């Protein structure tokens, strides 16, 4: 009765099925979805006149005229054969009766789904009396029901198909005990039913499924005989690991895809990440760039990104919609990347986009509301009273030796009054907000067996936590595929537009440094330009401190945009069942611009440089425009053949050519007399007197081969290679060969394990090969010149040499060995994969010193060597996998361990190392030194703070205790890279509810705690001293004789140089993603809402971060916690 009452109330209030669905969406997701659906009326009549045609043609015609869909297996339809029908204005039931008359099949209508199934054959009464009735459910590996799966008694034509919930009932004759369960695209299963009345069957994907095929971007290989180290990530894996960026989702799944923790820029949506796979292999940067973040440093070690066979930029991947992605494959070792030759040393990320399927028109939509909240948990700043207490304890407001001591005392009294009346400005709140963005993805696809199409549109609006910062991407996609006999034509066009804005509030560090005793507004509510006035010229009294909010109130501009057009065209010719040829050609064009404007009132112009006659030069506008165009063509031949059932041969041959062009122009205008002159043409003068420009142009050509042989699905060998030429390298060494060889053993296919119920998969892999890297400047091998554009002699322009070329400059070469083991136990309940690798990179590009008399200090040459060795482990265990109760619970984890070591450097780097080791300063030195890691920290060893004096004791290179810091005593002290990093994950599914959680951890690495240096001890400048500090500057510094502390005398304002006191071992744990997803019942949706799929999800990302090192994170841009609610619908 209760159920009937609910249905009555629902029906009385809402009579329209479409309105019922809309109400559910509004109540559960708190936002409405506007969608239009053109569908036929339920009783719409059907008219068909077809003679002697395949049954599938009738199906297509019905789906065209109505909104009915069909479910059937290939075997079932083949038994129908060709049919003839001539009907006018009939119902679906009348039509099916006419079509299937006299055929061995029947039909069943459930909602808008027509299920075609084999008729149950009559049996003799004596046998029927002894027949066994069984029932069960057929599901996919992830627990979803399989609709239309065929369940047939083996050796008979007795069978049924599963209904909309995957359930079936079947009477099995008494003299049979085997049933065969099959479905298109799945591996069929034979199930013995002796003594059973209920069975549950899980069908796995066949050999062409995601888990069994390795997509390399050039050749698709069977995983069973693949020797390379790869990680395949499905679309469902991506959704479970986050809802924001594809890059962070990959990192949450595989730790070998390492995104460096950026404590400087935190959650800034406009910052490109620093990514490496299996360690750094290149050091083509000036060593001085290592002392700070360098985009050149990041680019040199960046992996290659390939999307549907063509190279794409990191920026393009960061902005793309993950709803377009079918799979992502990480290629890690030489066997996997050798076919990419000089571009494969840093690893390859292969992205495969979704393709449409034949059938009726399908509309898919996914939308989400995304919220970002600033995270200040890493900040430990003083409040106003603590800051005043610090100034007193440090002697800043009571100095009897200062002639202005009376003024200081008056300043103290004024500040004390402010504190007592409750002034305690929380500066961190002013530049931030709770960012609310949204994301939408709409896709329409369908077609016939010969012609398929897909149209997609996506929009991603990211509002960062810094006020005014945002990133918006609008993208459209058009794909079609046409098949004519044995030819297939494909074209994929994508157009993207991105608009990004940086916050006008400047760097977040300005607010964390602002003194809480100051207020941003005066008593009348006007914003202050300066927070404190100068009392005297002595260094022990406050200097003017700019109000960071003042600059935010001025007219300004700091934004950029780009338009990207990418088109990929392919032709595939299937010559025979074993041989096919594929050719593709793609091009990418991108136009970009950036604009940055600071008005004349900006506090950055309050310096001596802009006083006097230069005061009219205040105000600055920089305009930059860039253009990029690239094309690539490939021709590939693939051959596969099985001989005598045990010998399987695969051979592939590919040729490719590519060209890349980049240009950029920049001009800076100075001298804007009015605040609102936000136009470059209003500048009074131009910096440097003229615009600047850069240009890069390169070409490459390659020939690729791959051969794979498998014997009896047990033993396999693999050979790959590429001969590649590039214009980036010297004229004497333009081409280079790259190769790999591998072998493997499928132990589980041996006779002694073939019947094992415990070991389902046991595979050993070994590979070795050589790959290269060319992530460098286009003209570094050439001697380059620049003209004196504004000067001439007798109408002739002079020129000077920019750089000296090297015709022998060659490729960086990485030799890599990989050993791997893959296991699966107890029908997939336990899975374990382990890989060991050893990478040796030779001929690194570094500088070679020249005699100064030649006019140049150095030139590029191949002299360096770096080694990376490590291990990767991935495990997963199903604690519960009960299909009857619809409960699954799995836990898993992975880890990556890498050891980096420099084996050889050039004399130029040795000279720069010695210079850096002689320099003083509060920051540690990062050097390229033989025998050390590329991430080694160099500091002077500290023995701590002397309790008697409050001064630091050091240990020099001779082992002596000294009070004097000497840069020559710097030694390697820790490596800024964790010994182990990885992820922990868990998945729990009960019926239609799924929960996923992913944790990330780092163990054993060392970091240099810059917060202790800048916010606890190094208060050497007036801005830092009178600004805000970490609480430890008050509570943990030495103040009296006998104090045992970690930090020096609170009254010591001398510079603290790089010391081992600040090098700390870090162990960290973070909750990266928490996801809860609910999928509505498919049958109910079809019946009441005319929907095929509906799901809602909740995501929380970067929920918490725990570390053994307490330091400020998100210095220029804060970190953020992210939350989102998503809705996915398909009809």
Sum this structure up briefly.
It is found in: Cell outer membrane. The protein has 20 helices and 53 strands.
Characterize the structure shown.
It is a multi-pass membrane protein. This is SusC/RagA family TonB-linked outer membrane protein. There is one protein chain. This protein is mainly beta and about 1150 residues long. It folds into 5 domains: about 1-30, no CATH class; about 40-120, Phage tail protein beta-alpha-beta fold (3-Layer(bab) Sandwich), CATH 3.55.50; about 120-205, Carboxypeptidase-like, regulatory domain (Immunoglobulin-like, Sandwich), CATH 2.60.40.1120; about 235-355, Ferric Hydroxamate Uptake Protein, Chain A, domain 1; about 435-935 and about 975-1020 and about 1055-1130, Maltoporin, Chain A (Beta Barrel), CATH 2.40.170. The protein has 20 helices and 53 strands. The longest helix has 16 residues, at about 405-420.
